[in-house]
Structure to design on (86 residues):
């Protein structure tokens, strides 16, 4: 059999909360252009991500990837910590 590689969605953002066990809240910011005025506006999304080793801290810049549903709100997992908070 041959192995099939899936296209996995990845995003990056800042950890805003690490108070839960094995879960972090990641805020992802993006800039979109206003349809009428043309000004770029910041929009943000909060996502719960699975962190099995509780390695992430508040303020870390992390990369997350989509995965199977782990709980009611968790469908993302932490792939790597890009930049650590001081």
């Amino acid at each position: 059999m041959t192995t099939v590689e899936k296209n996995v969605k990845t995003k990056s953002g800042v950890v805003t909360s690490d108070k839960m066990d094995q879960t972090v809240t990641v805020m992802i910011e993006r800039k979109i252009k206003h349809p009428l005025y043309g000004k770029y506006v910041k929009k943000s999304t909060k996502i719960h991500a699975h962190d099995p080793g509780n390695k992430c801290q508040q303020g870390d810049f992390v990369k997350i990837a989509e995965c199977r549903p782990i709980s009611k709100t968790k469908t993302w997992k932490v792939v790597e910590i890009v930049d650590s908070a001081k």
Notes: The chain has a mean pLDDT of 94.
